[in-house]
Specification:
Elements: E1 2-4, E2 33-34, E3 37-38, E4 47-49, H1 53-62, E5 67-73, E6 81-87, E7 92-96, E8 116-120, H2 124-133, E9 137-144, E10 149-155, E11 161-167, H3 173-189
Protein name: Putative glyoxalase superfamily protein PhnB
Pfam families: Glyoxalase (PF00903)
């Protein structure tokens, strides 16, 4: 595999550290890892499968503001992305192209979804417009919700549903949760 940490077009041909190499070369000292968690990471990182992953990387960078940390492609000039890592500020995702040999299949664009990723942005209205201009479907137009968030639901061109939000009210977790619970009770009563 080749690794690229600078752009979508260049590749680093140093592939000496492979997934099959199980020899530990750098013991955990606390310099980059604490309690098993690499510094700067969250304890859960969703991995999504999309096709083509290279185009999805551009969409997530250009529309959602993600920073591309790393891209690993298969060797031999393949365009398939084996693994990519994106940072959204205080959380991130990893992603790859569909890899049937690993049991990883991409969602059907336009089909039903089994998950939604939530991302906070500085202006949900701008992001919803940019997403639509880049080929996404805006399922729910931006609206202010009882949670204190301005919210939109977007399905990207690769079949991934995103809950895009901007916090517009300065509420505590308890206040936001209470409002959502009251809203849910009202919805159930109707």
């Amino acid at each position: 595999m080749t690794t690229d940490s600078t752009s979508l077009d260049s590749t680093n041909t140093d592939s000496t550290n492979t997934a099959t190499n199980t020899e530990l070369t750098e013991p955990v000292t606390g310099l980059h890892t604490t309690a098993g968690l690499p510094h700067g990471k969250t304890s859960i990182t969703p991995h999504i499968v999309v096709t083509p992953a290279a185009a999805a990387l551009e969409f997530y960078r250009d529309v959602l503001g993600a920073r591309i940390i790393d891209i690993t492609r298969f060797p031999g000039g393949s365009d398939l992305i084996a693994h990519a890592e994106l940072d959204f500020g205080s959380g991130g995702i990893t992603m790859s192209d569909a890899l049937e040999s690993y049991g990883l299949v991409a969602p059907e664009p336009g089909g039903a979804v089994t998950y939604s990723l939530a991302v906070y942005v500085s202006n949900v209205d701008d992001v919803a417009r940019a997403a639509a201009a880049a080929g996404a479907t805006v399922r729910e137009q931006p609206m202010t919700f009882v949670s204190g968030d301005r919210f939109a639901s977007v399905v990207d061109p690769f079949g991934v549903r995103w809950s895009v939000m901007t916090r517009v009210e300065d509420l505590s977790e308890a206040e936001s949760s209470a409002r959502v619970a009251a809203w849910a009770a009202q919805q159930h009563a109707e």
